[in-house]
């Protein structure tokens, strides 16, 4: 194919048969501020772990909401729970408890 | 042998109580780990036992710490505890002197006047009568105060009192009845046989004038015995378990056993030592400001004891430590809370990605801490002060560092915290520095308590003060009126109250506020309050700011980046870290110097 200097994004759809919303449903009830996240990414910008590695809370929350939860455990296990994200969040999402609750959900459903 | 069927309730109660207590205490001691057991064995045969006895006398009997909270409350507790013990001792001596026997039936001292109508003895009968009546009066005064306290607690300096469980009510009712019934039983007997002292004798004569005492006396003794028996049986299942458990706890503590962040059988001793006095209630900002009514230390311990602890109760506390500071039994409430959080925490983190690169080293390491990176002005001030004082230092987490581990620990994830601690310890040891300076009291506490580093660990306020005292920096006193907010982890957590204040006095005019030092309030954003919502945090924050802004100072100073960031959200007054004010002073004096030179 001729190189035009840009590429097309691959077609990407949420496959509802594969979507697993168990984590989302659990966290939504246990920590309601999970619902008010606008995915602005401030948490990720300030992340202490993010200084050393790929660690993206924004992406994780988005993926959990989509039900694409493979890899959440590995990604979340990098969190040091330092709490900078919860102070920086402009929406007042209690990110520390969100992470705590995602961990509980992972444990609960043995994901 | 002197015997009457009415002693049965008392004896039965006493026997059941003794069995339950012995069973519980031995099973808890048996469950302690080896080192702790060894400490007990060593402690019993050492001088520590005398220290323990002294402490038992001062705290369990005289209730010194309760006196400090409120004299009325102290007197109430003392008259009941110390008065009752003296009554038992006095009765025992009286009965033995009377019968001239070394051993008599164990209930005889309790029901002495029933069994001995003629209490004349070779000497001292009148004195005994007087003393025993005086002691009874002493205890009765305590009982009446306890009764008044149920309805008018403000008299005792308490705005709120503990809500009681049914077992507590049963024991409490029995306890309220014991001494009035003893008074009636002895008075009625004295009304017939004239063997009472100034109190029971007079009352006896009075009752004899209009009551059929022949019928009532026996009933009164039965009632007295039943009240005693009922109290003894209810005791191990109620808050009155603290009476005996606190004594054992004091001995164990003096033998060197300490509470840990893991729940063990020593924690059982601690939670059963809680008398639910409710002193922690008024101290808790979650109650006074955020209106959370069920998480205070007394209810938290209660729910552990009755196995109905809910997750929220473990996780909404800010661990500010104020309840612990004023707990008359000095229970390590923060440790117990963390140990219970462990039961809800999950997650096995992987921190392999943390490979810090350090090229150089220096005698002094500066660890700003995660939170300081959110308040860059503190970082800049500290770096400037280091440079100004020509200190050879290394900014360890300049480009982001490994978290100290305390936030994970506060969330009950001790094992994950341990992983971070190991990494940091290795790093700091490799650097071979002499001093570790940190700007964050949260880091400071964990460095001091859990890192086992054999180097000097100081907070930046302590470090700056030292620099100033050594003449390495010149402080410039401004005419600002400032108030100081004690961060929980620095003040109550690490016991550092004076150095920040000395430093502030060198750079401004420190005005005292009503709630400072041990009484200081929490900013509300504590990393421990994981499940507090933003409204509750705000209520605490506003409550704290109200106290700080009361006298309209020019500036609110603090020594914690987290407190600074939190308080600044709602404060109408400038909120600064002490280091910033210090650096401002230095730059101002430099400007003055420069202008004078140019003139």
Overview of the structural elements:
The complex is a heterodimer of chains A (111) and B (599). With 111 residues, chain A is mainly alpha-helical. In chain A, 43% of the residues lie in helices and 0% in strands. The longest helix of chain A has 14 residues, at 95-108. The termini of chain A are far apart. Chain B is mainly alpha-helical and 599 residues long. In chain B, 58% of the residues lie in helices and 5% in strands. Chain B has helices at 8-31, 34-44, 48-61, 64-69, 71-99, 112-115, 125-151, 166-193, 200-208, 213-234, 242-254, 265-272, 279-283, 285-288, 297-305, 311-315, 322-326, 333-341, 370-374, 376-388, 406-410, 414-431, 441-450, 460-469, 498-507, 534-549, 561-570, 578-598; strands spanning 364-367, 393-395, 435-438, 456-459, 481-485, 509-510, 555-558, 574-577. The longest helix of chain B has 29 residues, at 71-99. The A-B interface holds A 31, 33, 46, 48-49, 51-53, 74, 76-84, 87-88, 92, 94, 96-97, 100, 103-104, 106-107 and B 315, 344-351, 353-355, 370-371, 373-374, 399-403, 405, 407-408, 411, 413, 416, 420, 525, 527, 530-531, 533-534, 562, 565-566.
Topology, number of strands of chain A? 0
Main beta sheet of chain A, described?
Answer: none
Which segments of chain B are poorly predicted (pLDDT under 50) over 5 or more consecutive residues? none
> Please, how many helices of chain A?
6
Walk across the major sheet of chain B and give the strand order: 2-1-3-4
- Count of separate structural domains of chain B: 4
- Average of the residue pLDDT scores of chain A: 90
Topology, element by element:
The complex is a heterodimer of chains A (111) and B (599).
Chain A: H1 22-30, H2 42-46, H3 57-66, H4 72-76, H5 84-88, H6 95-108
Helix pairs in contact in A: 1-6
Chain B: H1 8-31, H2 34-44, H3 48-61, H4 64-69, H5 71-99, H6 112-115, H7 125-151, H8 166-193, H9 200-208, H10 213-234, H11 242-254, H12 265-272, H13 279-283, H14 285-288, H15 297-305, H16 311-315, H17 322-326, H18 333-341, E1 364-367, H19 370-374, H20 376-388, E2 393-395, H21 406-410, H22 414-431, E3 435-438, H23 441-450, E4 456-459, H24 460-469, E5 481-485, H25 498-507, E6 509-510, H26 534-549, E7 555-558, H27 561-570, E8 574-577, H28 578-598
Parallel strand pairs in B: 1-2, 1-3, 3-4, 5-6, 5-7, 7-8
């Amino acid at each position: 194919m001729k190189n035009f200097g840009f590429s097309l994004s691959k077609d990407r759809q949420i496959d509802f048969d594969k979507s697993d919303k168990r984590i989302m449903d659990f966290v939504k009830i246990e920590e309601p501020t999970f619902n008010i996240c606008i995915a602005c990414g401030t948490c990720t910008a300030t992340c202490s772990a993010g200084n050393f590695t790929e660690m993206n809370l924004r992406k994780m929350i988005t993926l959990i909401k989509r039900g694409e939860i493979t890899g959440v455990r590995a990604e979340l296990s990098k969190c040091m729970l330092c709490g900078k994200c919860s102070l920086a969040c402009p929406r007042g999402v209690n990110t520390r408890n969100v992470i705590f609750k995602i961990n509980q959900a992972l444990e609960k459903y043995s994901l | 042998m002197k015997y009457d069927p009415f002693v049965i309730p008392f004896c039965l109660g006493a026997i059941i109580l003794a069995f339950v207590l012995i069973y519980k205490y031995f099973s808890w001691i048996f469950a302690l780990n080896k080192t702790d057991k060894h400490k007990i064995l060593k402690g019993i045969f050492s001088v520590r036992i005398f220290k323990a006895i002294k402490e038992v006398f001062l705290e369990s009997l005289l209730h010194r710490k309760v006196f400090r909270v409120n004299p009325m409350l102290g007197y109430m507790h003392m008259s009941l505890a110390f008065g009752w013990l003296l009554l038992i001792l006095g009765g025992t001596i009286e009965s033995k002197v009377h019968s001239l026997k070394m051993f008599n039936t164990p209930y005889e001292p309790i029901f002495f006047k029933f069994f001995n109508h003629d209490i004349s003895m070779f000497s001292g009968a009148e004195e005994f009568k007087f003393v025993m009546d005086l002691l009874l009066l002493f205890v009765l005064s305590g009982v009446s105060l306890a009764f008044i306290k149920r309805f008018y607690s403000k008299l005792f300096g308490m705005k709120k009192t503990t809500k009681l469980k049914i077992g507590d009510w049963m024991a409490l009712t029995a306890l309220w009845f014991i001494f009035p019934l003893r008074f009636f039983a002895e008075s009625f007997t004295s009304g017939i046989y004239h063997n009472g002292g100034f109190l029971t004798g007079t009352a006896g004569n009075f009752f004899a004038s209009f009551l059929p005492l022949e019928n009532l006396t026996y009933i009164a003794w039965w009632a007295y015995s039943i009240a005693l028996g009922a109290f003894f049986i209810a005791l191990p299942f109620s808050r009155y378990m603290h009476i005996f458990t606190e004594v054992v706890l004091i001995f164990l503590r003096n033998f060197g056993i300490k509470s840990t962040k893991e729940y063990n059988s020593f924690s059982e001793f601690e939670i059963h030592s809680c008398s639910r006095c409710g002193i922690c209630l008024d101290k808790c900002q979650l109650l006074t400001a955020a209106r959370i009514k069920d998480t205070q230390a007394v209810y938290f311990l209660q729910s552990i004891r009755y196995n109905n602890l809910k997750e929220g109760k473990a996780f909404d506390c800010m661990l500010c430590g104020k309840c612990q500071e004023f707990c008359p039994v000095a229970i390590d409430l923060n440790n117990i809370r963390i140990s219970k959080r462990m039961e809800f925490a999950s997650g096995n983190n992987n921190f392999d990605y943390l490979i810090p690169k350090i090229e150089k080293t220096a005698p002094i390491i500066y660890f700003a801490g995660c939170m300081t990176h959110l308040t860059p002005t503190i970082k800049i001030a500290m770096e400037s002060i280091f440079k100004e004082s020509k200190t050879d230092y290394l900014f360890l987490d300049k480009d982001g560092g490994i978290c100290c581990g305390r936030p994970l620990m506060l969330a009950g994830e001790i094992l994950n915290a341990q992983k971070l601690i190991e990494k940091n310890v290795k790093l700091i040891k490799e650097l071979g520095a002499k001093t570790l300076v940190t700007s964050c009291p949260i880091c400071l506490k964990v460095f001091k308590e859990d890192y086992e580093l054999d180097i000097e660990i100081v907070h930046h306020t302590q470090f700056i003060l030292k620099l100033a005292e050594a003449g390495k920096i010149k402080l410039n006193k401004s005419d600002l009126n400032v108030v100081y907010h004690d961060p929980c982890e620095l003040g109550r957590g690490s016991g550092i109250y004076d150095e920040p204040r000395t430093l502030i006095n060198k750079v401004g005019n420190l005005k005292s506020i009503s709630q400072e030092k041990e009484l200081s309030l929490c900013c509300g954003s504590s990393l421990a309050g994981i499940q507090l919502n933003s409204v509750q945090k705000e209520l605490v924050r506003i409550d704290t700011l109200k106290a700080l802004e009361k006298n309209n100072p020019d500036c609110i100073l603090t020594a914690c980046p987290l407190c600074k960031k939190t308080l600044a959200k709602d404060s109408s007054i400038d909120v600064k870290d002490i280091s910033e004010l210090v650096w401002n002073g230095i730059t101002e004096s430099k400007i003055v110097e420069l202008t004078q030179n140019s003139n």
